[in-house]
Amino acid sequence: MNITITNSAIEELNKKIRERNGVLKIKYEIEDCGCTGGVPFLWFVNSSKNEDDLLIHTNNRPVLIEKSILVHFDEELKIDYSRTANCFQLKSPQQILSGRMPFISKVK
Questions:
Q1: Which fold has domain 2-105?
Q2: 5 with 79: CB under 8 angstroms?
């Protein structure tokens, strides 16, 4: 799997994360999503990872993703930020996986 973070996403992440220590994680929620599949979230978590997490090195910072959810994503992913929509986006060359991907900081 290859994940790229765009310059606009890097800029916004730097504003949100600042000097706090942690790592990004793509979380995929499937509970209460009905028949539409799941919803990806962008979490900022402590740097510790669980057994199911895979650490992906990107052009900017590492990203955790659970091995069990890899089947839901394309091999090439891009984390982008839309200033127009004021939110993160998750894209692949084939599709927009989330046009409005929420960012949630789990680090205090």
A1: Hypothetical Protein Aq_1857; Chain: A; (2.60.300)
A2: yes
Q: What are 41-95's pLDDT values in tens digits?
A: 999 999 777 888 999 999 999 999 999 888 889 999 999 999 999 999 999 999 9
Distance between first and last Cα of the chain: 29
Kindly list the distances between the CA atom of residue 48 and the CA atoms of 13, 45, 54, 96, in Å, as whole numbers in the listed order. Answer: 19, 8, 12, 29
Amino acid at residue number 88: F
Query: Residue 63 has what DSSP assignment?
Result: E
Q: Are strands 103-105 and 39-45 parallel, antiparallel or unpaired?
A: parallel
